Amino acid sequence: MDGTDNDVVMDGQDHLMTATTTTTSGTSTTNGFMGLGGSLDSRNGESVDGEDDEEELEFGGSYPRELRERRLLATGLCYDDRMKLHSNADFGPNPHHPEDPSRIAAIMTTLKKAGLVYQGSDADLLKIIQTEPYKYMWRIPAREAKREEICLVHHPTHYTWVEELSNMSTEELRALSIQKDQGRTSLYVGSLTFEAALVSAGGAIETCKKVVEGEIRNGFAVIRPPGHHAEFDQAMGFCLFNNVPIAAKVVQKEYPDKCRKVLILDWDVHHGNGIQNMFYEDPNILYISLHVYENGEFYPGRPDNNMIPDGGMEHCGAGAGKGKNINIGWHAQGMGDGEYMTAFQKIVMPIALEFDPDLVIISAGFDAADGDELGACFVSPACYAHMTHMLMSLANGKVAVCLEGGYDLEAISNSALAVARTLMGEPPPRIQIPKLCHEAARVLAKVQAYQAPYWECMRPGIVDVQDMTNNNSLRLHDVVRTAERQRLSQEYGMIPLYVQRDHIYKSFENQVLATRDIHAAKRVMVIIHDPPALRATLDPVDASLDGHNAWATEGVSGYIDWAVRNKFGVMDINIPRYVTKPEDMDSHIQPFDEAALSRHIEELVCYLWDNYLQLYDVEDLFLVGVGKAYLGIKLLLITRDVKSKVSGVVSFVSNAPLRPVKSDVDEYLSHWYKDNSRVYVSNDHACWNNAELTRKVNKRRFGTVIRSKYKGLATMMQEHKKEVTTWILARSSSLVGVEDAQGETTEDDKM
Description:
This is histone deacetylase. This protein is α/β, with parallel strands linked by helices. Strands 6-5-7-12-11-8-9-10 form an eight-stranded parallel sheet, with helices on both faces. Strands 13-14-18-15-19-20-21-22 form an eight-stranded mixed sheet, with helices on both faces. It has a two-stranded antiparallel ribbon with strand order 1-2. α19 (631-639) links the parallel β19 and β20 (646-653). The radius of gyration is 34 Å and the shape is elongated. It starts with 20 loop residues before the first strand and ends with a helix.
């Protein structure tokens, strides 16, 4: 037998085609061409793939030397019908399984229909091979992986366990499938599972080897069963052998000078726990996974052994491998092009460029694709093309794509086609990137913070909290509030009000200020507002922040000034977005969630009403809500009977939800709120983008909603100040000593 790479006959045996293939014209060529459609199972004489037996000639064998030297290389394609022999032995009432043999057949059919796989006549075959074989995908013969190759990443007892499946009876296999297809293991087996798994791993190996050798430009291994869940000592998650790690270790071992550093990019919707754990301490393999995490609840979930890391973003590797494990774990399903493209631009590509790999292997699961019900995400074929294109800029274009999951046949086929076309040199299609989900943006910020200690490109804008704490540094929101308190004290004599509630005292210490004579004032304005918005221009070199390039913007002080000049008592309530604790060490801390914010605000406003506001002998009480904190007005109105004391309510809303005011015990409350409120909503608020929402917010329970011409809280408050103060004056029962909206004294005051 010579050393020529030959295609195998799809009969599950070790027979090889001869290197010489006789064409229909009677001539012979030595290019390893083979008719996949005519592959017969020697045991029953039927086509293994179930398709017609019309001969289809495909590329294979050794790539023309002259074209290799000129770097006119084709994209490789590895496929073998024997991988379809792995099927479910449990023929129960629901025998269908998502990891079905038709997955790879559907992809191959789509590649053929798109013209990426050669299906022409023998007469044109020689000319194409000699002149432009890169027009089609070049066939990479699959083979069975060797035991010693598989045991580079798997324990020998695991190999033996899979091997023994071939010796089990059908009854034993069915019982084992029922047992294993439960919980985290989630696996089925059949009589030919071992053989199919060997070919799947061998296909990954051969694809990576051809790419590293430079015989092809890049390659796509359409293989199954998948591999990225398989642990070193057990099968799980539809996976028997972990194909990509096996291939990575083989090429590192056989080509130490050409392939030392490998990047494995896993975009399967599920975390590749097996790949992570195999390379968790390996400094030469960078594993990046984009997956749905859902706080550890999404498959594969948390391991039974809590010492083993899961797919959380805090798990960055160990020992020499610190920083070489990157988990971009989405908070929920439903992610799409906006989230994946941003993750690539902000995390994946900067780190990959800094790592500078010799080979890129994509663990290409397509279950995040739009249309896959199991993944329930919305990644488009165009997005997969763009991600592939970005990865092709690494490692001199040496990219090997190995199929993992993906269970909707149309979605997986269209996505694989987009990737294949990109590998072959087609530019990615034009794409309209949706806006990034806010929660996903926070996920990416936290990933950056976790990776900052290990990667230079991740450090700009990231603060070492432990170092700040050790240096007795102050958080900026505390500095800003202290400065506000001092300014309001100096200009208006405002002092802190004591909040005598143990569990909210520290949260709102110095956050509630009042003018000294508020208890004697006939008119009182209560302003409950968000903290000032911080805006800054970072240094373009090191992303540092200079104080002279930063601003704190707020519109509240202008209203306090007007109220004090018009003899109003003023209570200023600042609602912090988060109350830091000594144990907070994260570089990026999310603000209070809706539930926590509601609890804090409700307890505070009720305390202030019960202990201060309802006790004042006030004739006119006005409530002003600003930003997310305007939730406090709703909570006060529905938990306390304040209608008889409140003369009017004014709110400014930019990017916060609009709050309905409705009570089960006070049917008149919504009517009162409509008649006694003005709710200014920014021009770019989401409620104006939908006719149904616009109709809804005009109902009385939302108050008198006014669409502002302006955007941003500070701008709205400034531009509507004259209108608001005029409205407040018109509703005041006593105007003695009150200025008009322009600041002039009224006739009553002159008299």
